[in-house]
Amino acid sequence: MASPPAPYRELTVAASVFGILIGMIMTAAFVFVALKLGFTLPGSTVAAILGFAVLRGILRKGSIVENNINQTIASGVNNASAGVAFTLPALFILKGDKPEDIMPILLAAVGGAFLGVFFIIPLRKQMIELERLRFPSGIAVASLLKSPGAGARQAKLLAGGFAVAAFFHVLSGTGVLHEEIEIGVMLGVPAYIPIAVGISFASIGAGLLSGKGGLPFVFGGMLAWWVIAPAAVAFGWVPTPSTMGLESAPDGYDSFIAWEVGYAAMLRPLGIGILIGGALSGVIASFPAIRAALKGLSQAAKSAGGSDELSPKVLYSGIGVAFLVLFAAAVLAGGDEIGMGRAALTAVVGTVWLALAGLIVAQATGMTDISPISGMSLIGVTLMFFLSGGNVVAAIILGVAVSMGIGQCADMMTDLKSGHLIGAVPKRQQIAQFSVGWIGVPVAVAVIYLLWGDGGGFGPGVKELSAPQGSALAAVMNSLQAGAAPLDKYVAGTAVGLGLGIYPVSGMGVLVGLAMYLPFYITMTYGIGCFISIGLQRWKGHRWMGSTLVPVAAGFIIGEALTSLSIVLFQLAVG
Amino acid sequence: MKILGIIVLSVGVAIAASAGARLTPKLEEQVTLGGAAQFRSADTQKAFEAYCEARKEAGLDPADGCPDEAAQEPAAAPDPDDGEGGEEPAPPTFEDLVAAERAKLEALRASEEDLTGDVLAKREAWLGAFETGIEPSAAAAVAETPGPGARLGAWASESGPLFGVGLVLIVAGAFVGRVAVKREATREQPESGGKDAGPKDFGAVLDELEAGVRRIAEEARALESPKREDYERVKAEIEAVQLDGFEPLVAARQRVQVKYGMAGFAEIFGPLSSAERKVNRAWSALVDQHWPETQDSLEAAAGELAETHRVLQSLVESSLMKKR
Question: Tell me, what DSSP letter sits at residue A147?
């Protein structure tokens, strides 16, 4: 009698152990990178490349879906690098010392990580199966995982895209080319009407994969920078040389108007508000679908053959447990200053905000591959600051939870998109991420404590480790303590976002808000990809897009991610 | 009509976002003071660097805070607060700051160093810039930050009406857009025709897809020991189903949404997407040479498509019942 066939390799020990190892190494390395350079690298893409090379290339035993699990685990662990490294250092910088009680930090970060995974359970159906969001990095990773079976032509196209992106990224990363080309400045157009593109083939690739769906994002950017900014100048809503007591416009006046007034004080906070309003209206509009999705999950869970999805019971109980963890973190972090009632309120609002911000970040990532995590974390910290009665320690520690959670949402959703395209079982991916999402937290926190050393190991003024994101958050906390919070912009933006939600294009508010939240050259670069994609679709047709454009665009995204990693490692190696 | 909706919506967003972005008078004043201080400070720094350069060219030793090249410190105009320490002082007033800066200026002017020509002129220019910048810097430093509530109130009274007009236009444009999309979606024939499967042919495309997947699943089940050519053939058949079967259905999702509502749409697309994922899994298993998984996934996909068909049928029937 023939023995039963070996099961199809998916959630295996090899994929799990290797994923955890890669994830822990990436976490430690990317925390350092975040403190030094102020950004981390696209974890999912890097993990997929490393996992693919080792499991498939060296060990020669990884199946396509097993590689996806490996990448899900590695990026799930690594998510802590951004979640913790962008927020926690602010506490060290503001106190001038390391926090003695590490427990609330660990609790908050772990609670946030779990919440992020739980909230994804109903959102997966909504965003991937119903809204059909593109998640360009998810498509890129799926293209890479599918490459062994996609044929020689597609492999060549992927490699070609990779080479082009890598070549240009090396040139811009090493300073041979500028990171952005300011065409407007060359033509004598003022800096507050920017006409600029970035040298980023990953952004072009994301635009190529988004096509027509990305247009509201591009138009939002054009509206912000080609209509609102010049109108504000024309109507005298910004400081003029005469109101500043200057005889004439000094050098840098246009840049000051563009960046410090137009962007930082006007458009960016308004964009955050529109993102919030857009997401709220999206929740309202999609409520019947989300309810249907949850109903479907319940029915599937009860079916005899089992389900490919996690049961909604896991969602509800997970949210309950994570809320309790956040509550405990608030009590421990607030000390005597925060009573039980305030701690409970803080945990409730923190949980609700995390869900909404997770939705915003997942939608933005799904539509453009750009994630407004820092803006959403900023609002989270601001909310926590006011709810905790101005307690900076509690606000930042709960901000760590929010940052962890929303990062987990965006990352998990991208991995689930790759999984959908290659036929992975979502339940296995979610269990994998749920099991390991907390592992990166102690690694990231330990690296931060180690780098702080006996004091002053990072922060403003420390040349080697200036912790740009942590320093910026510390500055925000100082301004919050002085009473500054652009509530008017948030409220106005939320109203605009809610209004845009009535228009029958899903995610319109989120896309327009994201465009105002970002510098224009990013939007423009992405827009070039969208316009090329629309043109090619008309010219070459849908079939050609799938067989030719997708692998090229995937190559762009993967090429830039891997080159970024190489450049950063090189920079760290040579000091 | 769709274009009209987009135009009204865009004008509304432009007006509302412009009004929303507008700074309150108090904040505009604060930004203006900050800008004035920043530009004056930049002028002072520039004049200071020019003075230091002139000293260097004249062969004079560093003084007045000019950088000592041996120490390799970057050039920065001397900070009047240098050397102060101890307990955190009470916030200084405008007058305190101006007085402190003026004292610093007087100390610099009292220098007895004998300078002539270009160095002297550059020093005077620097001190002149320093003096001009004293009051703007002090004003920016003590400018009060309006609180969140005050900002919201001031913004609403200043920009609220214009913002309201923009918001009304956004809502109007959005509703016009909704009506246009609904009309377009309920037309019997889709505007673009051809490849875009509209509501009329959604069921037909689904039928074809279900039959196609079931046929491949049966074909795969019948092969116990597949050869290399079998793998290639089934893979090609799956790729054809992915492109010609699922994609037209996915492209028609907005029409399905309009016709059956959000909940009905979710009921149809739940099993349909599940079927798509299982077909994708069958493809991956083929590439990984795992025939049993390919067989199971294709059968599961066919089952999900049958479920999609059943849901669609019941939605069509209930929609007909409502019409009657």
Answer: G
**Token digits of residue A393:** 């320690």
Record: contact A502-B20, CB cut-off 8 A: no
Phi first, then psi: what are they for A198, rounded to 5°?
A: -95, 155
Residues with Cβ within 8 Å of A393's Cβ and at least 6 positions away in sequence, in order, are: A91, A95, A99, A333, A334, A335
CA dihedral B190, B195, B199, B204 (to 10 degrees): 140
Closest CA to B246 of B310, B295, B308: B308
Chain A contact probe: residue of B3, B22, B40 with most A CBs at under 10 A: B22
What is the rounded average pLDDT of the residues A240-251?
90
How deeply is B251 buried, as exposed, middle or buried, from its count of CB atoms within 10 A (0-12, 13-18, 19+)? Answer: middle
Is B202 in contact with B185 (CB distance < 8 Å)? Answer: no
Task: Give the best residue of A63, A218, A429, A488 to mutate against chain B (max B CB count within 10 A).
Answer: A488
Confidence grade of residue A498 (pLDDT, cut at 50, 70, 90): very high
| Residue A171 touches chain B, beta carbons under 8 Å | no
**In whole angstroms, what is the distance from residue B301 CA to residue B272 CA?**
9
DSSP state of A11: S
Write out the two tokens for B111.
């220098």
Q: Identify which of A359, A408, A344, A354 has the alpha carbon closest to the alpha carbon of residue A381.
A: A354
Each of the 324 residues of chain B gets a pLDDT tens digit; together they read 889 999 999 999 999 999 999 999 989 999 999 999 999 999 999 999 999 988 888 888 888 888 876 555 455 565 544 444 445 567 788 899 999 999 998 988 888 888 788 888 989 999 999 999 999 999 998 888 888 899 999 999 999 999 999 999 999 999 999 898 888 777 654 434 344 444 447 889 999 999 999 999 999 999 888 898 999 999 999 999 998 899 889 988 888 888 888 889 989 999 999 999 999 999 999 999 999 999 999 999 999 999 999 999 999 888 788 776
pLDDT of residue B85: 46
| pTM, rounded to two decimals | 0.87
Are A14 and A34 in contact, with CB atoms under 8 Å apart? no
Nearest to B20 among A132, A250, A496 (CB): A496
Q: How far apart are CA A188 and CA A186, in angstroms?
A: 6
Q: Looking at the partner chain, which of B145, B171, B297 has a beta carbon nearest the beta carbon of A423?
A: B297
Nearest to A355 by CA among A385, A334, A326, A329: A326
Separation of alpha carbons A6 and A3, rounded Å: 9
Instruction: Classify residue B15 as exposed, middle or buried by CB count within 10 Å of its CB (0-12, 13-18, 19+).
Output: buried
Nearest residue in A to B144, CA atom: A482
- Sequence-ordered list of residues with C-beta below 8 angstroms from that of B223, at least 6 positions apart, any chain: B230, B291
Give the list of residues 6+ apart from residue A489 with CB closer than 8 angstroms, or none: A266, A269, A270, A272, A273, B20, B21
C-beta atoms of B278 and A484 within 8 A? no
Check residue B275 and give its pLDDT.
Answer: 96
Which phi and psi angles does A180 have, rounded to 5°?
A: -140, 150
Q: With CA atoms as reference, report the closest residue to A117 among A326, A358, A450.
A: A358
Separation of alpha carbons B290 and B92, rounded Å: 76
**What Cα–Cα distance (Å) separates residue B200 from each residue in A262, A405, B186, B206, B309?**
50, 43, 9, 11, 14
| Tokens representing residue A126 in the block | 């909504």
Q: What is the DSSP letter of A198?
A: E
Comparing alpha-carbon positions, the chain A residue that sits nearest to B262 is A289
pLDDT of residue B192: 41
Under 8 Å CB pairs connecting chains A and B tally to: 236
Asked if A530 reaches chain B (Cβ–Cβ under 8 Å), the answer is: no
Which candidate, A55, A44, A100, places its Cα nearest to that of A77?
Answer: A44
Can you tell me the ipTM of this complex?
0.88
